[in-house]
Fold this protein.
Amino acid sequence: MKLLLENWRKYLTEGRALEQYTTLISREIVNALKDEDLRDAFKQNEQVYFKLTIEDILENLEYVKDVYINIASGDLVYAHAKYEFDLDATEEQRKNSDITVDIILPLEYDNSVFSELIPELKDSLRHELEHSVQSTEMLMTVQKEIPEGEIWKTLQSAETYYTNEAETKAHVVGIYKKAKMLKEPAGEVLDEELFNIYNTGLNHGYTEEELEPVMRKTREYWRYYMQGRFPYAEIDWER
C-alpha cells in the first residue's frame, strides 16, 4: 500500500509539472511569434525554422534536450508537435531527444490568431511531453506495431495505434489541457478529437460502417483512462 501511494503521488506531481512545462514552452513560442523580426523573415521566406533558447526551462526535463519550431504559411491556423527519440534508445540516448513543433499560419498573421493557436499548441505540446516521460519500452510498442507511422494503412493498424497505451495516455492528457484552456468539458473536447480522427479515416477511403467499431473502441479506451486520471475533468479547471 505504501508503494502504491508513493507511485500515485509521483504520478500526480509529474503530471502537474508537465502541465507547467507545457504552459512555459507554449508561452515562449507565442512570444517568438510576436517578434517583428521573425514576422518579417516569415513574410519574406514563407517558412521559418529555429531552435527555442529555453535551456532554463528544459534543464529539469531529463528526456527533452531541445525544442525546434517550424513555421510554414497556409490558409489555416494549425500546430502539431512530435517527440523525436532514437529507436530502442538507452537511457543516456533518450537525453538527446527533441520536440519539433510544426505550425501553420497565414503569411501576414496578426495577434488575433493566438486565441485559436494556443489551445492547439498546448494540446500537442502536452501530448508530446507525456511521451517524453514514458519508458522507451512503452514508446517502442507503437513503433513496432505501426512501422514508419503508417497509421491508416489498415483499419487494424489505426485501431492498434489509437488504443495503444502510450498514445491513449498522451492523447488524453493533451485533450485535458486543451479543455482547460477552452473551459469546456473534457469529454466534449475528447469527442471533438475523435470526430477529427473519424474524418481522417473517411479521407483515407474507409466507410462510416468500417470506422464505427474503431472509433467506438478508441472512445471507450480514452474515456476510461480520462475518468481514472482526471475524475473531475468535467467540472474542475483548477487541478
